[in-house]
Design brief:
By secondary structure, the chain is an alpha+beta fold. It contains five helices and five strands. 63% of the residues lie in helices and 10% in strands. Strands 4-3-2-1-5 form a five-stranded antiparallel sheet. Helix 1 packs antiparallel against helix 2 and helix 1 crosses helix 3. The chain is elongated and about 65 Å long.
Length: 221
C-alpha cells in the first residue's frame, strides 16, 4: 500500500515539476532580460537584451523594445540559443502529452500496464532532454557574459553586460525538468504498478478462477 502511495506521489511530483519547468522555459525563451547593464552617466536608464529583442528601461518613458532585424547578424550564442530553446519547449510539450497518458490516475488503458510504464519512461526521457537543451543555452550565454565582463581588452569606460533575471529563471526551469523526469522514471521503474480496478480486474481474474475450479473438479473425480 505504501509503495502505491509513493508511486502516486512520485508521479504527481514529477508531472508538476515538469509542467512548472516547461512553463518557465517558455517564459525564458521570450523574456528580454537575458543580459542587462546600467549606464554610469545615466543611472535611470537600464538596457536589457534577450534572444529576440533589446530593450531600454527609462524611469520617465518606461520600457521600449526593438526586435532584432537579422538572425544571422546575432552572436553565435544567441542564434544557437534560439534553436535550443525552441527544441526544449517542443520536447517539454511532447513529454507532458506522453507522460500524461502514462499516469495511473488516468483510466485510459489502465489494463495495459506495460504500455503506461513505457509512456512514463519516454516522458521522463523527453523531460531530461528538454532540461538539458534549456540549461545549455542559458549557461552558454552566462559563460560568454562572464568572459566579456572580465575582458581586459575592452576599455573600462565601456559598459559591461551582466546576468539578467531570465538566466536564473532558465536555470530553475532546466533543473525542474530534469528532476521531474527523474521522478517519473523512478515511479515507472522503481515501484510496482497498481492492479486494474473495477470490471477490468474482474475480467482479468475470472479465467484464473475458472481454471482453478476445473482443476479442483478433476482431482475430485
Amino acid at each position: 500500500m505504501m509503495a502505491l502511495v509513493f508511486r502516486a506521489v512520485a508521479q504527481l511530483g514529477g508531472i508538476s515539476l515538469s509542467l512548472l519547468g516547461w512553463v518557465l522555459s517558455c517564459l525564458t525563451n521570450y523574456l528580454p532580460q537575458w543580459k542587462n547593464f546600467n549606464l554610469d552617466l545615466n543611472e535611470m536608464e537600464n538596457w536589457t537584451m534577450g534572444l529576440w529583442q533589446a530593450c531600454v528601461v527609462q524611469e520617465e518613458v518606461g520600457m521600449q523594445c526593438k526586435d532584432f532585424e537579422s538572425f544571422l547578424g546575432l552572436p553565435a550564442e544567441l542564434r544557437i540559443s534560439r534553436v535550443l530553446m525552441f527544441v526544449s519547449n517542443g520536447l517539454g510539450f511532447l513529454g507532458l502529452l506522453v507522460s500524461g497518458f502514462g499516469l495511473d490516475c488516468l483510466r485510459i488503458g489502465e489494463t495495459q500496464r506495460d504500455v503506461k510504464k513505457r509512456l512514463l519512461i519516454l516522458g521522463g526521457i523527453l523531460f531530461w532532454t528538454a532540461g538539458v537543451t534549456a540549461l545549455v543555452p542559458v549557461s552558454w550565454v552566462a559563460h560568454v557574459t562572464v568572459q566579456e565582463f572580465w575582458d581586459e581588452s575592452i576599455p573600462e569606460i565601456v559598459p559591461r553586460w551582466e546576468f539578467g533575471e531570465a538566466l536564473f529563471i532558465g536555470w530553475f526551469a532546466g533543473f525542474s525538468l530534469l528532476l521531474g523526469g527523474c521522478l517519473l522514471n523512478w515511479a515507472a521503474c522503481g515501484t510496482q504498478a497498481p492492479l486494474a480496478s473495477g470490471r477490468y480486474a474482474v475480467a482479468e481474474t475470472q479465467p484464473h478462477h475458472l481454471h482453478l475450479e476445473m482443476r479442483t473438479t478433476h482431482l475430485k473425480l
